[in-house]
Amino acid sequence: MASYAEPDKDRLADLLPILADRHAILTADTAGFGNLAATICMVGADAILIPVSPGEGDVVEARKTVGFIAGLARTARRQIPARIVPNRIRRGTTLSRHTLSEIEALSLPRLQTSLSETVAYGELGFSGALSRVGAAAAEIGALVAELRSHGWLPATGKRKDPNM
Length: 164
Description:
Blueprint: H1 9-22, H2 36-44, E1 48-52, H3 56-76, E2 82-86, H4 94-105, H5 119-127, H6 135-149
């Protein structure tokens, strides 16, 4: 696994196809508002995940982003699939339930998997490793399985028996 940071939008447009040729999976993380780097990444994407945290502002911006991606797809004359990923969901809270119902009411395309607000995700930024146990591990497992079901991640084969 490799990591790249490219703040220059002109170089980013040239770098993305090179990196896509080198890696089976390429993930680009950009600011969540309209900017040229995000647009460059969207145009080159095979699929887009839009994280939405509980709150009206995130839902409004997600709706705009979904519409913008649809426009880019029409311009590029190809499909650019996008899905909302509910993020920082606090199960059992009115705010989280309302956010999920607003996403549904607006008919925004979303993954069924949602990510909770757990310390493990914050620790991931420091350690680079996600715990293999607990709620976060289960959520990430469900997310990976759902992305594979959409064809957005390669399927895995059976593990080889180390005793063979």
